[in-house]
Design goal:
Structural class: alpha/beta
CATH topology: Rossmann fold
Helix content: 25-40%
Number of helices: 12
Largest sheet: 8 strands, mixed
Strand order of the largest sheet: 5-4-3-10-11-14-12-13
Number of domains: 1
Oligomer: single chain
Shape: globular
């Protein structure tokens, strides 16, 4: 591997190596993105036991995989990334850090049903890669590739999971499709989900109504919390939906990271990023 294909980053006070395409702007800014993983690491630390199992849907080059692996010395991570070049970089990141025995890579997309799908693999910015459907804006200008698609239920069965504690989902507006393909897994394991609620990606990539999506998630999961940096995670209830949506659109520029789950015991274990 050429030196320009690898970068050192610090995540939760620990040094790691990540691989990537030098032309990828996400990889170019890997150190900054690693610092941005502090909130995810703090939330995951409150949820994951040392022997737990995490699944990372939309793992990119592996920064969040490293955050989870750091917390799972006796556990497992299943890392899912459909973009072929990014999935290869993800495998190299795992190998660079000696995590092959604890982290499995699946080069597939995850949705509501198995099959194949059009996928826009943006060579210049892997974080913008996404599935392409009839609801995707400017889809005629894209040059998608075809990727295999599976479901979270199928992945859990294929890996013989006996538990699943945490699922991170970063799929640019297709989060609801992932949840639709995880009904059996959710019923069996009741994992927590870390995902982004982003009105912009929902509208532009999925043509989905953000209000309907938020109400759907609040209906599926009894406990929903929003990350708030060093502040305690904020509980979001059905009666709060209007105010939450207003601030999401007006104050927070369409970006909220949420934890969807079945209890809030983890909030008492949560500590601010950086151990403060």
């Amino acid at each position: 591997m050429k030196p320009r294909d690898m970068r050192r980053v610090t995540l939760a006070g620990r040094s790691w190596r990540v691989a990537g395409d030098p032309a990828d702007s996400y990889f170019q800014a890997a150190s900054a993105h690693a610092r941005g993983m502090a909130e995810i690491h703090a939330v995951a630390a409150a949820i994951l036991p040392p022997d737990g199992v995490a699944m990372d849907v939309g793992a990119n080059i592996g920064l969040s995989v490293l955050a989870f692996a750091d917390l799972l010395p006796r556990g497992r991570v299943i890392a899912v990334e459909p973009a072929p070049r990014t999935a290869e970089a993800l495998r190299r990141t795992i190998a660079l850090n000696g995590l092959e025995e604890r982290v499995a890579v699946e080069a597939v997309a995850v949705s509501a049903a198995p099959g194949e799908a059009a996928f826009n693999a943006d060579a210049g910015h892997s974080a913008g890669s996404k599935l392409v459907t009839a609801g995707t804006m400017d889809r005629a200008a894209l040059r998608p590739i075809t990727v295999p698609v599976t479901t979270l239920d199928a992945l859990a069965a294929a890996h013989g999971l006996e538990r699943l504690d945490l699922v991170k989902v970063d799929v640019e507006g297709f989060e609801g499709d992932v949840l639709d393909g995880a009904r059996e897994t959710i019923a069996r394991f009741r994992p927590a989900f870390l995902l982004e609620f982003n009105a912009w990606t929902l509208l532009c990539n999925r043509n989905a109504n953000p209000r309907a999506v938020l109400e759907d998630w609040l209906g599926r999961f009894p406990c929903v919390h929003a990350f708030r940096g060093a502040a305690r995670p904020e509980r979001v209830r059905r009666e709060d939906a209007l105010a939450f949506l207003h601030d999401h659109l007006v104050k927070r520029r369409c970006a909220d990271d949420l934890v969807l789950g079945f209890d809030d015991a983890w909030v008492e274990r949560w500590r601010p990023p950086g151990g403060g």
